[in-house]
Amino acid sequence: MSNEIRETSSSIPRCGAYPLDHKTLIKVGGFALGMLLLSAGLGIFLGNNPGIIAYAIGGAGGLAVLSVTIWSLIDACRQHSRQIAERAETCKKKLPATLEEGGVQKPKEQSPKATPEREALKEKLKEINAKIGEKSEKIKAMADAYVSIFHPLPFSKYPRQYPLMGYGCTVCHKPLREADLFKEEERKDLYAHLYSPEGYYHRLASNHGQVLSYKDDEIVEILTTKDIHLDDSPYFKGLTLDGRYIIQQNGIRGCVPAAAIMIISDRLGRFIEPEHANLADDDCIKRIIAEHNLSVRQSTVGAFDELQSALQQHGPACISVVTVGGHEIVIDGVTEKGVQIRDPYHGWAVVVTKDAFLKSTPFPISLIQAV
Prior knowledge:
The strands form three sheets. Strands 1-9-8-7-6 form a five-stranded antiparallel beta sheet. The protein is α+β, with helices and mostly antiparallel strands. A hairpin with a 1-residue loop joins strand 6 (317-323) and strand 7. The protein contains eleven helices and ten strands. It has helices at residues 3-6, 22-45, 52-94, 116-131, 135-150, 184-194, 201-204, 255-268, 282-291, 304-314, 354-360; strands at 219-222, 225-226, 236-240, 245-247, 296-301, 317-323, 325-334, 339-343, 348-352, 365-370. It folds into three domains: 3-94; 116-150 and 172-205, no CATH class; 216-370, Alpha-Beta Complex (Cathepsin B, Chain A), CATH 3.90.70. The model is unreliable at 1-20 (pLDDT under 50). The protein is elongated, with a radius of gyration of 41 Å. Helix 4 (116-131) packs antiparallel against helix 5 (135-150) and helix 5 (135-150) packs across helix 6.
């Protein structure tokens, strides 16, 4: 805001109503009241005499005073109206040119900001339009370019998978940026591709789609799995070599039921389809365990030896960590290499360093086990 707008000098009248001239009204009113009292007294005093004349004089005086009073009020109101009009004109002159009548800010017309990403996408789209003529291939290439430039996944040397946006996810799609770079007839097809199950909607729907659950340098080993995929489930990923179930969470925020189903499947010896959930908690894990006729064991451990003892006695446990925000994983054991976990976010079994594990969930740690 300019200094001109912030100026509050007394030489500039403030926007608003002016008060009436109270001093003038008090004087006129007092004079009128005095004249009325005088006229009334004079009329009473002269009333015993041939008093018609006296009454006439008193009434005339009262009417005169009343007339003066009314005229003074009308004049004061006119002056008040003139002052308001002058005040409004003064305030209007002080407003910047960008304010329309009524005080609504008029948006400035400007061209889209030339960011490096925008320029890179513009060049990539020129290249695509020059080389590709078939519609579906062009849309796919445009989507690849758009996502890789505006929504790049962080680099990982490991083959990570990411959860799609599930039915239970209450997240909003990010709007298509730089839409003016695409032709109007292309935009609808591009949206349809971006948000299809085969497209990129898991990366456009949430910040969860753009982070790593445990960084590369925090991972000691990716455990070998038996690649046993079920045709009717996109969530079952296989078994570890010692027979532990690995499940991909069925939504960006579906980690809790996926972790619960992993420890239940371990106990039952068969795969259980995870339910859809959004931002579930420990009560959800306990309910799912109970629904499969298993008992819940909840405990707290304060050191690695206590943790390993509990896992050896009662099996794998669900624990809460902070990696992709609040997150639920399964912990299988503690070794010299580190901590063995199953992470439903990437749908894998890995060993992470003890430092990385404690960074994500310091002691004391709450365990939930199915027994």
